[in-house]
């Protein structure tokens, strides 16, 4: 019984991690209608920046995390202003080709600068190991992931639903022409949203180094997971990808534990079943834009 | 230009190339070095390339009156590339040796070319048993997984480890390691209580490790590709398997010198069987490690040693043939070659053209603030049991 809870806990932590990594993609894909396959590259950037700060510059892990967010967001803004902006009105195929090219460039660049072997971020001792909670093994690092990601989710939902920026963003998405007619600076809103999504990916990258491993192939290896989260969750809200991430995280961990032979296929099975049942994802809108 | 004159021109240039070729071959011996210099296996390629350069610096680039020229090509560990590059090297560059090969499929892809062109293929890294059987021109200076896996199986059975859970990556080398370990461990009276094969592209070990923990074995036998070992060890410690008294054993690939320091103290106490440790206490090795560190700023791993001995094998063979580059003569010269390598005494088995070497049982310990595999038992002159079985 306690094992069940440990599995559940690990699954939730894994799902939360997937959510932080993928929710930026849900925002660009769902809200801005832009196919950004280079999303993983921003996650990787955040991870490597955090690793360099902690390992080489001696920063404490917790102050490097916000910086991973900020710098990934800054890279996001720079690229959005110079490159991405020109592709908003282009076809999805153009966007796919452009962003996949960007992904390959990022892989090659990181391989050249940082080397191809996997790197680790030195963690403070307080985050290492597991403690016993009524017989349930709780990993300290995974607990921290759940706390950080849980807070982020609540904050995101509040920003989108309650703040003025949230309503501007939703207006800009629903009808950019009417929104700019009302005096909303649509490009600015999009740029900010894009940067925020990239920042979240950067934070996710820094957090995932310990669990998923960080190497130059990160953007390619995990692209499929991000896309599964977004397709299963539907891309019209934050709640959809969030629940999808949890479902996939728990499904993946439990599948690998209880049926190790089938393990890797469990999440694909879940995805196929859900997409047959609801082709637009769990919370997708019936009519795609 | 008419088709006929084009053909004539082509024929003429081929004839000219043929006429030139022997003249060139008299002066230089060319080695086509095919390695993964980019991609996930790049650290293998870099180590071998470094080691080859180091050997040539130390021993000069002339052997038996011939100048040695190394042509490095990057196949990114993709077998299709390997085959294409090997063909280009043989046909266009007219190399006398092909060497390198980071992964088994790459070595296999080049095998038919070596047979057809009758030139030696020196395998410096790939470790599946079958490789040397695929062409009479293949000689290996690295290792086979059978060598280390059978030895750790024997050792575990004799040293109080009764129940083992295995965790291996689901691909050819992983299955090789698992089968050879199982065979020797169960023959020695051990019991496998849990057997898990993890997917090669595996992001998170957590569920598999939880399964290991619940099986309550004396030890976990691990084989994952180099690079994933660090993640494995960290999560192993995170889940408290080290505190439950479950040991980690395995072939030494997991504890590659290249990556060992990045794993942190979680790796302490891991027992592995392998052909080389940077901490091997011999004069030859101390000299090798010092020179390698000085030249490249890091410690050599077992891949570097495979490359170092590989280029040395080519030098030794050329010395024996007096600089003749006939493929059959070179292979004959390589059979039975033996010398003291940084890893210890090695020789080339005349029957299988595979390497015969000592396998050491090592434990990860902290030496001068750095993690090293410290050897504490030696199994001498181990042949590849993947072949002796037949």
Automatic annotation (TrEMBL), chain A:
GO molecular function, one term: transmembrane transporter activity
Coiled coil: none
Any Pfam family hit: BPD_transp_2
Keyword Membrane set for record: yes
Transmembrane segments: 12-32, 61-84, 96-121, 141-161, 182-203, 223-250, 262-279
Keywords from the named record: Amino-acid transport, Cell membrane, Membrane, Transmembrane, Transmembrane helix, Transport
InterPro entries hit by this protein: ABC_transp_permease, BCAA_transport_permease
Main location: membrane
Compartment(s) where it occurs, according to its Swiss-Prot or TrEMBL record: Cell membrane
Organism: Bradyrhizobium jicamae
Annotated protein name in UniProt: ABC transporter permease
Gene Ontology biological process terms, A to Z: amino acid transport
Family statement: Belongs to the binding-protein-dependent transport system permease family. LivHM subfamily.
Superkingdom field: Bacteria
Bilayer topology annotation: Multi-pass membrane protein
GO cellular component entries: plasma membrane
């Amino acid at each position: 019984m306690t094992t069940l809870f440990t599995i559940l806990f690990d699954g939730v932590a894994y799902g939360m991690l997937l959510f932080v990594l993928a929710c930026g993609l849900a925002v660009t894909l769902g809200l801005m209608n832009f196919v950004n396959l280079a999303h993983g590259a921003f996650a990787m950037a955040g991870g490597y920046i955090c690793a360099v700060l902690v390992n080489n510059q001696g920063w404490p892990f917790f102050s490097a995390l916000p910086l991973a967010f900020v710098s990934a967001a800054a890279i996001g803004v720079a690229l959005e202003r110079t490159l991405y902006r020109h592709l908003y009105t282009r076809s999805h195929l153009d966007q796919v080709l452009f962003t996949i090219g960007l992904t390959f460039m990022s892989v090659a660049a990181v391989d050249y600068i940082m080397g191809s072997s996997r790197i680790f971020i030195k963690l403070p001792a307080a985050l290492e190991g597991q403690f016993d909670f009524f017989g349930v093994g709780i990993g300290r690092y995974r607990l921290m992931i759940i706390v950080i990601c849980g807070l982020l989710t609540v904050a995101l939902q509040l920003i989108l639903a309650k703040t003025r920026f949230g309503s501007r963003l939703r207006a800009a998405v629903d009808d950019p022409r009417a929104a700019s007619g009302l005096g909303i600076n649509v490009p600015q809103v999009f740029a900010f949203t894009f940067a925020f999504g990239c920042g979240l990916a950067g934070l996710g990258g820094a957090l995932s180094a310990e669990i998923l491993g960080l190497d130059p192939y990160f953007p390619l290896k995990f692209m499929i997971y991000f896309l599964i989260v977004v397709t299963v969750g539907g891309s019209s809200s934050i709640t959809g990808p969030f629940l999808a991430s949890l479902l996939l995280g728990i499904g993946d961990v439990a599948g690998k534990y209880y049926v190790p032979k089938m393990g890797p296929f469990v999440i694909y099975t879940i995805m196929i079943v859900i997409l047959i049942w609801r082709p637009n994802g769990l919370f997708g809108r019936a009519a795609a834009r | 230009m008419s088709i006929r004159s084009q053909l004539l021109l082509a024929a003429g240039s081929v004839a000219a190339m043929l006429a030139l070729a022997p003249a060139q071959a008299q002066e230089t011996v060319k080695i086509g070095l095919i390695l993964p210099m980019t991609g996930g296996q790049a650290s293998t390629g870099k180590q071998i390339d470094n080691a080859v350069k180091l050997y040539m610096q130390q021993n000069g680039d002339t052997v038996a009156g011939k100048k040695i020229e190394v042509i490095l090509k990057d196949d990114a560990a993709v077998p299709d590339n390997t085959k294409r590059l090997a063909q280009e090297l043989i046909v266009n560059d007219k190399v006398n040796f092909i060497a390198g090969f980071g992964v088994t499929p790459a070595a296999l892809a080049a095998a038919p070319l070596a047979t057809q062109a009758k030139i030696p293929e020196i395998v410096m890294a790939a470790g599946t048993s079958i490789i040397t059987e695929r062409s009479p021109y293949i000689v290996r200076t690295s290792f086979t997984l059978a060598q280390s896996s059978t030895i750790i199986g024997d050792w575990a059975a004799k040293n109080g480890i009764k129940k083992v859970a295995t965790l291996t990556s689901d691909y050819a080398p992983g299955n090789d390691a698992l089968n050879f370990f199982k065979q020797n461990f169960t023959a020695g009276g051990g019991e496998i209580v849990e057997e898990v094969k993890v997917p090669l592209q595996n992001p998170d070990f957590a569920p598999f490790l939880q399964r290991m923990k619940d099986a309550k074995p004396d030890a976990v036998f691990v084989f994952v590709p180099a690079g994933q070992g660090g993640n494995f060890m960290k999560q192993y410690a995170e889940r408290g398997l080290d505190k439950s008294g479950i040991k980690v054993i395995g072939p030494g690939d997991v504890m590659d010198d290249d990556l060992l320091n990045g794993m942190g103290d979680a790796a302490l106490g891991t027992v592995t069987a392998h052909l080389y440790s940077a901490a091997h206490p011999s004069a030859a090795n101390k000299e090798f490690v010092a020179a390698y560190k000085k030249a490249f700023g890091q410690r050599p791993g077992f891949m570097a040693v495979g490359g170092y001995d590989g280029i040395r094998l080519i030098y030794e063979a050329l010395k024996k043939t007096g600089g003749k580059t006939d493929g059959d003569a070179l292979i004959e010269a390589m059979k039975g070659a033996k010398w003291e390598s940084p890893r210890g005494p090695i020789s080339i088995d005349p029957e299988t053209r595979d390497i015969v070497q000592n396998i050491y049982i090592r434990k990860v310990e902290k030496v001068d603030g750095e993690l090293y595999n410290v050897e504490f038992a030696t199994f001498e002159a181990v042949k590849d049991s993947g072949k002796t079985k037949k």
